[in-house]
Amino acid sequence: MNLLKFKPTSYKLETVSTGRVFDDPGWALTDPECELPSLIRAVYDNSRFTPREDLKGLYRYAEWMPVRRTLKKSCAPVTYKSKALAKYLGLNNLYITFSGWNPKIGAKMSTCSFKETEAFSVCARMDRKEKRTLIVQSAGNTARAFSQVCSDNDIPVVICIPEDNKHDLWFRHKLNRCVKVVAVPHGCDYYDAITLGDKLAKDPRYFLEGGAKNIARRDGMGTTILSFVEKAGRLPDAYFQAVGSGTGAIAAWENAERLAADGRFGENNMRVYVSQNTPFTLLYDSWKAGSRQLADISPEQGRRQAEVILAKVLSNRKPPYSIAGGLFDVLERSHGDVFLASNDEIMYWLLQFRNLEGYDLLPAACVAVSSLAQAVRDHIVDKDEFIMLNCTGGGTLSAMAKGFVLKEPDLVLSPDLPSDEIIAMVSELF
What we know:
single chain, Rossmann fold, 6-stranded mixed beta sheet, 5-stranded parallel beta sheet, about 35% helix, globular
């Protein structure tokens, strides 16, 4: 396909808390006229779910992604009806939506994570003539996905990560020089990486990707449920996913609302079940307290808990929980719940899933599998319900078997440094 002929997706923005509809000036993350914290959502001109047969990979779903162009090497999530795991759990309609590396089922995300869905959507939202450098803050998988996508498509980016998670920066080939990695030191966590990126963004030569506030990130992640509906022909009754921020679950709910409005896939009665890795239980504690406000957690406590868990990507201390349209609203509206899984349970399901389904999952996805097993045990889901298990990453053993290279941080900087020092040192990298 000639990429120059791609017509940008047509949409407007809507503020969740007020319903105000307005035009996107290019990279809106919030509504400037809304005084309360609120997400904004894309309202697409095409209100019908219309996969693009003329586009490949993730961009088959471009009609519901706020993109101006397409990028190279994208892949879409793959959904299939489970046999082995379904039989093991006693479920008749279990569908697994997998985002990772397993060519046997058509899954070819080289970074092995559904964070590629974010990266290909966010970067395609950028203007082709953008002169500023993108900043991406990550606990690991997002860093790997954006690094690879930006490297393949010559997009300058600064990736901010905790140094303790640098082992996640493995790639099949050496990255393009347009990708720079800046880490916060040993003992720091994802929130510290966010702080570092925020300070760098004070320089007008840089701009923040935006995290959960970026409609492109959410609508890229929301392609998982589009994949499910293409396979199952209807909306799920129950949705399971492990979460750090909860953005993927928010995205799934938003697309479920769009699909229900389409009218061909049933009403949106989908219950959203999310899960965390103990002892990092911020979202669980907040939800179980019945509070829109996040539970108290000190930086020291959060860092200690993040060090202990196997699924380190599930350790966001500032998730979009309280904000209008955020995870609290999704759980409340969907009559959902939050589950927990221990490190031991992760290891159990990592081995069990591989035995049953034939491929390995990343630790976070094993948390989701554990939660589904708990829900079956406690009769929270019925054996005949249509269930979507969002396995957000896996296949690393196969992907890395052909060799890989590690990307070391270009700089290690304390998040406590003044902004001007951070800006000066990072700018010398380019």
